[in-house]
Amino acid sequence: MFFRNLTLFRFPKSTSKSLSELETRLADHRLRPCGPIELATRGFVSPYGRESEELVHRSGKFALIAIGSEDKLLPASVIAEALAEKISAINAKEGRRIGARERKRLKEEVVTDLLPRAFVRPSRTFAYLAEESGWMVIDTASRKSAEESVSQVREALGRFPATPMAPTESPRILMTDWLVAGKLPAGLSWGDECELRDPAEAGAVVRCRRQDLESDEVREHLKSGKQVFQLGLELDGRMAFVLGEDLTVRKFRFLDVVLDEIGEEASESAQAELDARFALMTLETKRLLEKLDEWFGLPRPDAKD
């Protein structure tokens, strides 16, 4: 398994001590099935899959976890149809108008009636914790999903002061400067996509894919005042990604030179394969995180007791 997106949070050095008890703390917060009248549940599941009870996979100072969820699928159109039928029945029987307050109560009754019959959609989000450097890396591009994952860890540990990135250098301005100057920091090379926006409210948006980023077409957009909000890049010929102005890393993938290091031989077990892939991923991702810190300035937060 390799992450496809990286949303980054960082926690203080003092927090690393509590991660030694991670397995014990997560055990009390396992995912449980949705109850008959529950809309959703959240909890931890095994990163190895359904057949395993282990909630943490460790490789050196890195800990892999998986946050599971079960969500009831109850479309608004289904609720609206059932509510309309209920109101029609009341009108036919009693011949009176339904007020807003009663309508709200009837809708709640409809939802309660439908929930036990709703389909359940399971999902899981992977994340890993780097104890020494203080990174929490979450495999999602959704800020909401990432914050929910942090909240689950916080609930399990009791205290987990992880915060989003607070760069000292503006990624948007710096990436725009890179593209305007046609010059990248050492180790970086151009990808083939970007998103340019007029920074004014409701300004124009240009998305380029499979495009030479040093072309005259792209430069004309920059001359008109557009700024870089997403930029396709490659690092050291080993990984490719799209970096956002919020420092979310999208479309993250390893290039052939890295994949060849795993080899084609089958692993002895699912755990052995996960261990090999996770060790490689964290080692390579560490290289990227160090570069992001170097380019944009991403100080590790201090503990606030």
From TrEMBL:
Subcellular location: Cytoplasm, Nucleoid
Entry's Gene Ontology BP terms: DNA recombination; regulation of DNA recombination
Domain of life: Bacteria
Pfam families linked: RdgC
HAMAP family: RdgC
NCBIfam families: PRK00321.1-5 (NF001464)
Function: May be involved in recombination.
The name this protein goes by in its record: Recombination-associated protein RdgC
Organism of derivation: Dokdonella immobilis
The encoding gene: rdgC
